[in-house]
Amino acid sequence: MTSSCPVPHPETERVLLGHGSGGQLMAELLTDVITPELGLTAPLEDAALIGLNQVFSTDSYVVTPRFFPGGDIGSLAVHGTVNDLAMRGARPLALSLAYIVEEGLPLSELRDITRSAAAAARAAGVPIVTGDTKVVGRGAADGLYVTTTGVGMRLRDARPSAAGAEPGDVVLVSGPVGLHGIAILSAREGLGFDADVSSDSRPLNDLVAAMIAAGGADVHALRDPTRGGLAGSLNEIAAASGVCVEVVESAVPVPVPVAAACDLLGLDPWHVANEGCLVAFVAPGSADAVVAAMRALPEGAGTAVVGEVVEGVAGRVLARTLVGSSRVVDVLVGEQLPRIC
Amino acid sequence: MKHLQEYRDPVLARRLLAELRTTATAPWTIMEVCGGQTHTIVRQGIDRLLPAGMRMIHGPGCPVCVTPLETIDRALAIAARPDVILTSYGDMLRVPGTSGDLLSLKARGADVRVVYTPLDAVRTAAENPGREVVFLAVGFETTAPANAMAVLHAAATGVTNFSALVSQVLVPPAITALMDDPDAQVQAFLAAGHVCAVMGWTEYEPIARAYGVPVVVTGFEPLDLLEGVLMAVRQLEQGRAEVENQYARAVRRSGNTAAQDAIRRVFQVTDRTWRGIGPIPASGLALRPEFARHDAAVRFEVGDLVTRESPDCIAGDVLRGTRLPTDCSAYGRTCTPRTPLGAPMVSSEGTCAAFFNAGRTPEHR
């Protein structure tokens, strides 16, 4: 018998699809390639603070399919940037909307998506004030790519930062996790299952405003767990804040269809993307008031207390498992690859 | 789905653990064969809650892990051809071959696609008549029926540009090989519930008799595994060595005979080399000669493959259950899910990846 394995050849020269997954590969891409060239050193936040209270963020959207249960690439692009601003405690002031369109895209589709983006912006109370449109040849893009950029103004007493979590903080999740990622997967052709789920894509700026009104500066950290999912956001906050986080597995709201789809595909719901919920770290003295304020709004009705910041290894996230044991909650390496069986 | 919640009930789990503690009087060693079971055990930390001295050994049942390097290298060589679309289950894409993995090859322009069922690969072939579509057909008896159906479907509908690169493996010969190993430490087996849903459990009865080991057909939820362990311990305590079925909601003694028929029509038993373990007689399935036109190994001449293994990793010992991932000097250092040295670090069903993702260290197993 032999007991040997092959020499590894990790890909170091080219971009892999997994580099865009929000996992460990993406973190490496940022720290090894992007941020050093830009001279950035501080931990990366969902949005940047400019001066005292202005907040600035940008994000690109390449989702396939462009229309999915619960939304489309237009509304998603608005919600995503509004939410990135909100995670710094900011009220959105204005958005830009930029398109890269592939030759041949039906005009009716572009009209529908633009209408959807406009409606989403109105609903979030933020005007789209500028934009750009480029057309590239067939095959040079996949239908339509959308970029939104937003500026916002920090709410009074709002100080949330990924680096702001403190020992004793209560960890909250504002709603069910995994809906967006599973809705997208189920909308893709040929998956062989039909999950009855819609994306949770929605604006969270009102929810954050209610949280800040209830808890002020005691709302220490906010993150919307998009790519990389809940596990990614918890790890980012634990690392940036230098704290240890313990989450109770049974307390995390995973909708039944999401759990079923994840079981079927061999995915971890904590790694699946969300577009309409947030993770919050709140000082224990304000946690009850913040939870009550969240639950009073439809987008926070499912708010759950899922864990706390505990004594332990800085940067580590632990889960208390269903059977009462514990494990470390890690970030994804690259793309989440479905298991064989 | 109501059932799913039931099989994850924390109160019932604690009750089973308490019963296990009162039942076990000796430090029994039990192997769960299947990687899916390893995943649940390590993810839930079940092995840490067992009575003192009792051990779970994690078996060779991760299809990604045991697929021979030669097959991976062959898949890489075939995928590199411009006329080929190579399709596979997701977690095969990061398994390291001698000179890279399928994901890296994809970044360099190869057409590599993830499918969720082999029938999708047949459909891709039908939609791309000018291309060759190759499906990397790996797995245990669980994936064999669907893979057989894909070949039958392609043959019946005349999709001649579909072929399968087959590396199917079988569980019972692997268990026999493990028990024939002079270092064998396993005293009871948890057999894989889904494998038995297809094959039934008659194949395990001679093994239980010959080696005097209890075999419990077990499911994949936390309560399934706790109950399976408890049933195995009861047998050990009572000096019995029988095949019992914990997974009664899915498995019957004769299995799924229609699925078995599909397997027999398409495949024949062959000797197979298990990566990290070595050759095991009559432990694999290969396409029957009448399906040669759908056999990628026949259709694509890739020349002599020179496979090269490095001595650094102990995957074979881990797969045989004689050492733990945390015993490996490369574990967590040069070998991580980001840069896997061996296949068990790739799939979440692989023992090394299951350990790493749960934060296990040599100090804190």
From TrEMBL, chain A:
Gene3D superfamilies: PurM-like C-terminal domain, PurM-like, N-terminal domain. Pfam families: AIRS, AIRS_C. It comes from the Bacteria. InterPro entries: HypE, PurM-like_C_dom, PurM-like_C_sf, PurM-like_N, PurM-like_N_sf. Residues 166-315 form the PurM-like C-terminal domain. One of its GO terms (biological process) is protein maturation. Residues 45-153 form the PurM-like N-terminal domain. Belongs to the HypE family. NCBIfam families: hypE. This is Hydrogenase expression/formation protein HypE. It comes from Lentzea albida.
From TrEMBL, chain B:
Gene3D superfamilies: 6.10.20.100, HypD, alpha/beta domain 2. GO terms for molecular function: 4 iron, 4 sulfur cluster binding; carbon monoxide binding; iron ion binding. InterPro entries: Hyd_form_HypD (IPR002780), HypD_1 (IPR042243), HypD_2_sf (IPR042244). Keywords: Iron, Metal-binding. Coiled coil: none annotated. One of its GO terms (biological process) is protein maturation. It comes from the Bacteria. Pfam families: HypD. NCBIfam families: hypD. Belongs to the HypD family. PANTHER family: HYDROGENASE MATURATION FACTOR HYPD, HYDROGENASE PROTEIN ASSEMBLY PROTEIN HYPD. This is Hydrogenase expression/formation protein HypD. It comes from Lentzea albida.
